[in-house]
Design brief:
The chain is elongated and about 80 Å long. It is built from 14 helices and no strands. Helix 12 crosses helix 13. It is mainly α and about 350 residues long.
Length: about 350
């Protein structure tokens, strides 16, 4: 039979073992730690503004990717002139303005119809978002890759390489971008198509990508160069050199991971800026033209008819403001998640 003293001692031993195990578990958790990516994700999940912005941005990309499916389910497309279709002869009045409330909004046309020709605004907006987003995504990726490569080469090698690459960057920065876009776009298209022929849409898209890529990488290149200059003399880089690591390995393993944050944050600002530039080119008539759906072309049509039909500009305007605002807020949240010392 066990005595009360022995029982008490056994209970104390069990309690001591549990406490010791708890302390070991806590110590084990502390030692295990989390990677920078896990820490960034944990901070980002606590940012409600960032999460909402991310959901909005992802929704825009998903909707634009599913534009053909949504258009099929909706039963209309952005190219058909509906006043010429059977059953839709009365959607425009004698002045070619939409009949009905707020630009012809109805159960048939959710966002109304386009003045003069009677195209469906809802599907025009869907395909316009699709055009702008994916064009801007391609342009942003090209600009980021170019800026990172040139900035890292200039910053890491220094000397004459840095001098000449910096002078080339300064030269391109001297161009007045908006004026250059307007002047150079017709030149690019004329190099491949006769002035008598209509320029294909794909060629206009390629020309926009080339011109914007040509003049859009310099800011990121300077940012990356300055970051690399501050890192290349650090102790861990010197240690890698002493250990015999190749230049490629030092750049890839030691320097690049330490400049991911400014690259990613800058990229989140470059994409909405690219969307605005694409819209600007179409607005002034050197980007996408009739009948390609595009945000900028919708603004151009709305500017011609805003006195008679201000509703046409309402839906594309709201969509652009929401997307640009959400993407900029997402960029701020990503920056704060990577570097909490810059918190708002």
């Amino acid at each position: 039979m066990t005595s009360p003293i022995e029982t008490e001692g056994a209970d104390s031993s069990v309690a001591l073992d549990k406490n010791t195990a708890t302390e070991k578990g806590a110590a084990g958790d502390a030692v295990t730690g989390r990677s920078p990516g896990q820490l960034m994700w944990a901070r980002f999940k606590r940012d409600r503004t960032g999460l909402i912005s991310a959901v909005v941005v992802i929704a825009f990309f998903v909707i634009s990717a599913l534009a053909p499916v949504i258009s099929w389910l909706y039963g209309k497309d952005p190219y058909t002139l509906y006043p010429g279709e059977e059953g839709y002869e009365d959607i425009l009045d004698d002045f070619s303005m939409p009949i009905g409330t707020f630009g012809g909004v109805s159960g048939e046309f959710w966002f109304g119809v386009e003045p003069d020709v009677g195209r469906d605004v809802f599907t025009m907006l869907l395909y316009g978002i699709r055009t702008s987003l994916y064009m801007a995504l391609v342009i942003t990726v090209l600009m980021v890759l170019t800026g990172v490569i040139i900035g890292m080469v200039a910053g890491y090698f220094g000397g004459k390489v840095d001098y000449w690459l910096s002078r080339i960057t300064d030269f391109f920065l001297a161009f007045p971008q908006q004026l250059f876009f307007i002047a150079f776009m017709p030149v690019v298209t004329a190099m491949f198509v006769s002035p008598k022929d209509e320029t294909p849409t794909y060629l206009r898209a390629v020309a926009i990508i080339l011109v914007m890529w040509f003049l859009g990488w310099m800011g990121l290149a300077r940012l990356v160069r300055s970051s690399v200059l501050s890192l290349r003399e650090r102790e861990f880089v010197e240690a890698a050199k002493v250990s015999g690591a190749s230049r490629w390995r030092i750049v890839r393993k030691e320097i690049l991971p330490n400049i991911v944050t400014p690259i990613l944050v800058q990229g989140t600002y470059m994409l909405p800026s690219s969307i605005l530039t694409i819209a600007f080119l179409s607005y002034v008539g050197v980007g996408f033209v009739e009948p390609t759906p595009d945000w900028g072309r919708m603004f151009a049509i709305g500017a011609e008819n805003y006195e008679q039909n201000p509703a046409f500009m309402f839906f594309p305007g709201i969509a652009m403001v929401v997307f640009i605002l959400a993407f900029n807020l997402l960029g701020d949240s990503v920056r704060d998640a990577f570097d909490p010392k810059t918190g708002r």
